[in-house]
Amino acid sequence: MSVTQFENERWSxxxxxxxxxxxxxxxxxxxxxxxxxxxxxxxxxxxxQEKGLTVEGVDLSSxxxxxxxxxxxxxxxxxxxxxxxxxxxxxxxxxVALDVLEHVYNPAFVLGEMKRVARDAVVISVxxxxxxxxxxxxxxxxxxxNNRPNKGHVYWFNWTGLGQLTSVAGLRISKLKTxxxxxxxxxxxxxxxxxxLLSPNxxxxxxxxxxxFI
Length: 214
Description:
By secondary structure, the protein is of the alpha/beta class. It has helices spanning 3-13, 20-28, 43-50, 62-70, 107-117, 132-139, 159-168, 188-198, 200-203; strands at residues 34-37, 55-59, 74-77, 92-98, 118-127, 171-179, 206-213. The radius of gyration is 17 Å and the shape is globular.
């Protein structure tokens, strides 16, 4: 099954719900127009529009882009994993990719194209494949959730790897948000959040970063 077929099947049977990455990224996006890479069914695009920002989306999946258009938003089918984005340099103030880069074989290429069409900032979210829960699962001989085939993940990120990728692309991480297990639990949640800032590789479940140009 090709990546495009995988994504078409996924969006034929899936519908997004607003979760941590959406809410965190919304706080990091302060200027439009915005381009949403791997926009899926357009949920985050709708959130940006409600914030008063102009937004466009691109996705591998024609099924996903059809869902975007049903929301009255502008979407383009594009294999951004291998082809240059069909936009001019600096066309968008902010370019976002939420849980997208771990699905592509060459995230450096995709990130380079994101930077090219952005004027001010790039915002990325990726799961942390080195999180404490993942390490515990491996210790007990289990395959961590993020590594299972149904996820479609082909590139494994942790905090170190994300920092290296952004640096090579000529980007500097200026803001970071993380989520942790049981983050709403009294005392435990705030404690784990503090640990995630001290040691993101170990305690964060995922990362949302805003990157500025070096």
